Amino acid sequence: MFKFTGTIKVIQDTQRISEKFQKREFVVTDTTSMYPQDIIFQTTQDKCSLLDQFQANDNVEVSFNLRGREWTSPQGEVKYFNTIEAWRIEKQGQNQPMGIPSNGPSAMNMGSDPLPGTGTNTSEDDDDLPF
Fold first, then answer.
1. Cα Rg of the chain, angstroms
2. What CA–CA distance (Å, rounded) separates 55 from 7?
3. 33 falls in which pLDDT band (50, 70, 90)?
4. What is the model's pTM?
């Protein structure tokens, strides 16, 4: 299980692939890093309705599983595919304890805060580097 925090950019309509299978895709943007990333997730079957309560620009935390599979083409070429399968979506920024940023670090976007004891020195007196 993984979690990803960001802002919903796009929510697609539910696609009926067959009589027994449907999926719905949505894109969440991670804006916490220097280079924002647009990540596409999918929900399937009864989880497609999870997106009904959300809209573009909502800040969310997505719980998901990473799926992979092998496929062999009719010509015998083997290819591999990944799917990011969302199973829970929670709105962020509401009913959240004070002091916790709605777009804070998650399992996928590790924040840019320095580790304890590795902060930057701003005083030249404390700097023991030779250059």
1. 20
2. 10
3. confident
4. 0.67
